[in-house]
Amino acid sequence: MKISKELLKGSTAIMILKVIAEEDAYGYQIVQKLSQRSNDLFKLNEGTLYPILHSLEKEGFVESYRKQTESGRERRYYKITLEGKLQLSQRMNEWKLFSETVNHILEES
What we know:
This protein is of the alpha+beta class and 109 residues long. Helix content is 61%, strand content 15%. It has one domain (5-107): Arc Repressor Mutant, subunit A (Orthogonal Bundle), CATH 1.10.10. The protein has a 3-stranded antiparallel sheet. The longest helix is centred in the last third of the chain and has 26 residues, at 82-107.
């Protein structure tokens, strides 16, 4: 089953923040973690991921830094800021209330 872009649009940033809050990660890692945790339901492409990361960075919720890998390749990692942790907590509370309310409405007969 494919998820509507409209539903995904409102929840992608919070999922990305959650992944980064657990450990600093580079773009491909974020995509892989979201895919694994969703049983391949959420497969973001670069055209979706990087604009969200740049927006989160502009808002001060994440910071990026470059790190060289063992193979000598340089990657851009993202880490959550204190402001990002606060934002994640707020968004998680909002999501819980929203999803519980929608589920309640949909389950009413």
